[in-house]
Amino acid sequence: MTDTQETPEHEGPDDQGNQALDVNYEDKTQEEQDNDSEAQAEEEHNFADGEKLTFVRVRFPGNARSFPFLIGDKKYAYGQKVMAMSDRGMGVGYINSFPYQISFHKNMLPIRSISKIATQEDMDHERSYVMKERQAEKACIRLIEELKLDMNITHVEFTQFGKKAVFYFNAPSRVDFRELVKRLVSELKIRIELRQISVRDRTAALGAIGVCGLQTCCSSFLRNYGNVSIKMPKNQNLALIPSKINGVCGQLKCCMRYEDDVYTEKRKKLPKEGTMAETLNGDKGKVLRLQLLIEQFDMLTDKGQKRRYSSNQYTPGQKPPKDWKFPTEFRHIVDETYEVIGLAEEDKPQKKKELSEQDRLEESQKNLQTIEDMPEKKPEEGQDSGPDTEGQKKKSRPKRRRRKPKENS
Predict the structure, then answer these.
(1) Contacts of 91 (CB under 8 A, 6+ apart)
(2) Order of strands across the sheet that contains 334-341
């Protein structure tokens, strides 16, 4: 058995600057290498350059990455469990993307395809390794304590139908674990592979629930996670509290990376904090705070008024005159941030009044037209016109007799 140390091309430096380490303690036999070269040669002859190929991505449990697989005309549902060949051997995975097309190029070789849809027997067979994985993890932890190695086992995975065990661990630096491997091989009697991963890779591989209540992005759909800097939470005006800006892995949240573009665009519409600005209504002062999501900003004017303005009150590049100076002190500062100056909703009532007056004029004109166009009503047979009927009604009423006053005797 020969010891070889490899660094995978797809892995890059993690957040701590460590290189993901892949140590394989059994080389491929010459027969396996010949089979791989023959399969690659077959793939080269099957497709032409520029030909459109349909792929889906498949993710395997315990693996932080998803892999592309050729499906052709076959149809698979999102989340469907399939049997496919991963970088660690044949195993059960699930569809992690919708079908997409890519033009063929030789750099894409070797191209893998899905073997079949996973059956209940295949899934039960995968679950049968759970107890073996726990026993192997306990044995590895015991040997690490005996050898006093500075490393932490995160999880263990059995691959190639139980013929190989992959141990994942975190460590602050590279670890000399040759003695650990010898003892594991002698105790477990199977192929052993130790792989150093970052804390982000551990969360992506095991899966977790984020503070949002949903599955973490790194374990669900993100292909490239990490690369988050402290400038991103500052760009959102977040308090730099670890419990607020860190995810379940203890590192900065990956979601800040794809939220950063939105906050950057909103900042372009607003002045910078701490700068002097002049608004459209003529106020001049110092910008105190930005309300990024609602695109508003607070400013202390030179008259000692703390006001809140909408983004439409600020013109980029507009500054107070050169001879203007901001006061060094104020006797009184009045807080007027309860009213937003320049908010679009303030113009809506005026528009409603104007529209209502126009509507009234239109309605009055319509009423005049309807009155003029109304036909005169003809009296029915046996009835006279309006005024005559009123006279008849008056005549028909009985006259009241006035009583003569009694003569006093």
Answers:
(1) 60, 61, 83, 84, 126, 159
(2) 276-278, 284-291, 296-301, 305-310, 334-341
For the question of whether the overall pTM of this predicted structure is more than 0.85, the answer is no
43, 41, 24, 23: which is closest to 33 by C-alpha?
Answer: 41
Q: What share of the chain is helix, strand, coil (3-state, %, to 5)?
A: 35, 25, 45
Encode pLDDT of 328-366 as tens digits: 888 888 888 888 888 864 454 444 444 566 666 776 666
CA–CA gap between residue 295 and residue 292 (Å, rounded): 5
| Nearest residue to 346 (alpha-carbon basis) of 281, 405, 287 | 281
Please give the CATH topology (third level) of the domain spanning 4-25+128-203. GMP Synthetase; Chain A, domain 3 (3.30.300)
* Cα gap 151→140, rounded to integer Å: 11
Helix (H) or strand (E) segment spanning residue 122: helix 120-127
**Nearest CA among 1, 6, 21, 20 for reference residue 184:** 1
Q: Where in the chain is the domain with CATH 3.30.300?
A: 4-25+128-203
Checking if the pLDDT of 407 tops 60, the result is no
Q: Cβ contacts of residue 184 below 8 Å, gap of 6+?
A: 136, 139, 140, 143, 165, 167, 192
Q: Tokens 């005049």 — which residue?
A: 368
Q: Are 97 and 57 in contact (CB under 8 A)?
A: yes
